[in-house]
Amino acid sequence: MTKPEKLSAVKGMNDILPGQSERWQWLEAQVRDLMDGYAYRNVRTPIVEHTQLFVRGIGEVTDIVEKEMYSFEDKLNGERLTLRPEGTASLVRATVEHNLLYDGGKRMWYIGPMFRHERPQRGRYRQFHQIGAEALGFAGPDVDAELILLAVALWKRLGLSQWRLEINSLGQPAERQAHRTALIAYLEQHQDVLDEEAKRRMYSNPLRVLDTKNPAMQAMVNAAPKLIDYLGEASLAHLRGVQAILDANGVPWTLNPRLVRGLDYYNLTVFEFVTDLLGAQGTICAGGRYDYLIEQIGGKPAPAVGWALGVERVLELVKELGTDIPTPQPDAYAIVPDAGAMPQVLTTLTALREAGVRVQMHAATEQGMGSMKSQFKKADASGAHFALIFGGDELARGEVTVKALRDGQGAQTTQPLAAAADWAHHLQSRA
């Protein structure tokens, strides 16, 4: 019989294994607690959406829609479907579909996997994970600033300090149109400098030309018409409102007139948190205001603003800075010399676990339970503070021996099996 071929994960779609997953759980716990403190409520959307949602929401001539989406035809009904490449469009779709703004604005957050067909590299994968915070139904700069402060509060919790905040304003559609006309005219005068990608985008999405990384185009781009020079007083006042709140809270920021973001739905405030510690993938969190997206997706016009962070990139930064992340360890390890005692042992362990004690049980193998010496080695390696020894003599007396493995090493007591919940606190006292 031929041995089956060993199967591997799809390139760029990674397993998160024990030893890694604890870091993810730690980050997720910090986010959940922080979102509760800011009164943001969790929402969960499907991984698969209609392709048209992203074409209409993100923009037909964006890199995401043109090159990166995982799209396919449903074999049952011929619908065009897509694995979600980002979370905002899905959240807005859910808001519109379920009429969530009927009684006023909503603050929501999401977490989950996204999918883009990219060349995998550090911090940039085909399946990646985002955490996003979105405030829908609020028009003022105060909520833009609140969301930025929410991200800053998260960095403090995670022990991250080596970042900078870049902000800009994309203004309103009429202002962008005036700038677009001037920008196209400018680019037409410098076609000899443009690379093929810029020439392709010059008429369809000229703002994205300004975001080029091509060194040969930098001087030309730096001299291009700046959108901020085309903003009216209302747009400038909105930007100043955000800046004033950041200043009052001691949050440093830099105005970056070339910051345009890669999605078409933004207007007014846009921002990025950037670090120099992760090479080319330096953006760890980004977002902005998208006052027209709800209407584009079929809802009644309503303002909105939000951000998303890349979980993999944030965890890379946490690792780079050597932030100490607690690793969960059991309070106690159950040593069981005789497999026949398992009914009694598991009854006791269930009572301890229900009382809040984290217990790891030694399990039998095909060779049996193993020697006491080998079980003690595993108990010590587990990081547990106590060993619970379910020996034959102890069980005959209805007891278990509790031996300290860390503080007060070697000290031991006996405890009654029938009253496990009463002495459970003893196992947590030094954990």
TrEMBL record:
It is found in: Cytoplasm. Coiled coil: none annotated. The keyword Kinase does not apply. Its EC number is 6.1.1.21. Residues 27-337 form the Aminoacyl-transfer RNA synthetases class-II family profile domain. Its main location: cytoplasm. Transmembrane segments: none annotated. Homodimer. NCBIfam families: hisS (TIGR00442). HAMAP family: His_tRNA_synth. This is Histidine--tRNA ligase. It comes from Comamonas denitrificans.
